[in-house]
Amino acid sequence: MARTNRKSVASSLRRPDVPHLAEARRGGSELGFKHGRWLGLCEAVLQKAAPAFQKLPIKVLYVTTGKGFPYSPLDEGIHNSLTALAERVVLATPKEDVVSIAAFERPDLVLALDGMDFAVDQVKRLRDMGIHTAIWFTDDPYYTDITSKLAPHYESVFTLERNCVPFYQQLGCNRVYNLPLGVYPGYYRPRNPRISLRGDVCFVGTAFWNRVQVFHELLPRLESRVFRISGIWWDRLPEYNRWKNRIELGKWMAAVETAEYYNAHRVVINVHRAPYDETFNQNSARVSAVSPNPRLFEIAACGTLQIVDHRDDITQYYEAGSEIVTYSSPEQLAELIDYYLDHEQEREQIALRALHRTIRDHSYESRLARLLELALSPSGSQPEAEASLNP
User: Fold this and answer.
1) Are 159 and 287 in contact (CB under 8 A)?
2) Which terminus of the chain is more solvent-facing, meaning fewer CB atoms within 10 Å of its CB: N or C?
């Protein structure tokens, strides 16, 4: 029997070294190394920036929005953050008998988020029981026709929009504070995204008409880039059929999946909704918007470069040019995208600085620590309180 040459058999079974496959393997290895290095840098920032909070000997009854998704991740993030700050946190929905729960639990504070489904007669009875009450409005100034009827019933009012502070004060609210929403790092943080998602630019959000106009002008400038849009109503784009292969239409992503999208792209666009869009808003008082949306903090917490439309208060939370990049027109937005995609080191440095600032100053633990301090304070200077909210 002839002896078989094992080396020749192995050679015959080896997959041929096809040039483009070899190149793809090298590219995958390089991409994996690069992203591993980046995650290492981000993790070092997270460890360094995260502040420590002392748990307070208090009991908080937290009344959720009761609206389900997409508000449920916000409720979960705030509830989890409260448990790190208060000795005991009791959870209730706005449709429950919160008064009975409070009578049994005797909380130091009842905190309602949004409050649109929480009956004001329950709030009145809570105050009659001597319990501190606070509401945190999540969508100011877009629904002031509704919130104006709720705010006067609470002892303390927190709003993410600075221009709503005098608005609520004019309604007779004595304790009103500008407190923006923040970020829950359990959801929004640097992650290793799927390779299939990775690209240059993305936007996640609803196609309000002002956003449609921005992207109608912007997308032709991005044609050579790998970009994605995800959200509802994007078939409103005048040239939707031209871009539909790059749009996930009608998708409303969970928080963790949204964070993966942010992590997968080198630039994430943030466009605020318009305060006077009468198609969707209920803001007949025409309170203008100068404060940032929650997306500002969520994108920054993912360690990616954010380019956001200018609002006056943004620079109270991030240093322009160092921690955040803003634009004033679709033309400028396109130019900034091109610039930072071509200047990787600058892009990374700004993203890391924004990540550090976000974890240090803008987590929900930071926000709620301040909220608890103000809501449980027997008295205080309103101007000093407002100023102290902005790091």
Assistant:
1) no
2) N
Enumerate the β-bridge partners of residue 324: 320
Ordered strands of the 227-231 beta sheet = 247-249, 227-231, 199-204, 265-270, 305-309, 325-327
Burial annotation 354-378 (CB, 10 A radius, 16+ → b, else e): bbbbbbebbbbbbbbbbbbebbeee
Tokens 């078989």, residue?
4
Q: Do 169 and 242 contact (CB within 8 A), yes or no? A: no
pLDDT in tens, 129-182: 999 999 999 999 999 999 999 999 999 999 999 999 999 999 999 999 999 999
Instruction: Compute the distance between CA of residue 227 and CA of residue 267 in angstroms, rounded to an integer.
Output: 9
Question: Nearest Cα to 28, choosing from 195, 200, 192, 190?
Answer: 195
Assigned CATH topology for domain 56-180+364-388: Rossmann fold (3.40.50)
Q: Is 230 helix (H, G, I), strand (E, B) or coil?
A: strand
Residue 29 pLDDT grade (very low, low, confident, very high; cuts 50, 70, 90): low
Output the DSSP codes for 241-278: HHHGGGEEET----HHHHHHHHHHEEEEEE-PPPTT-T
Q: Following DSSP, what letter does each residue of 47-60 receive, concatenated?
A: HHH----PPEEEEE
Sole residue written with tokens 């290492």 = 40
Mean pLDDT of 349-375: 98
190 pLDDT band, cuts 50/70/90, is: very high
Q: In one letter, which amino acid is 317?
A: Y
Q: Which of 180, 175, 178 is nearest to 382 (CA)?
A: 175
Distance CA 189, CA 200 (A): 19
Are the CB atoms for 132 and 84 separated by under 8 Å?
Answer: no
* Contact in structure between 167 and 150 (CB atoms under 8 Å): no
Superfamily of domain 195-361: Glycogen Phosphorylase B; (3.40.50.2000)
**Per-residue DSSP letter, 293:** P
- The reply to whether the predicted model has a pTM over 0.70 is yes
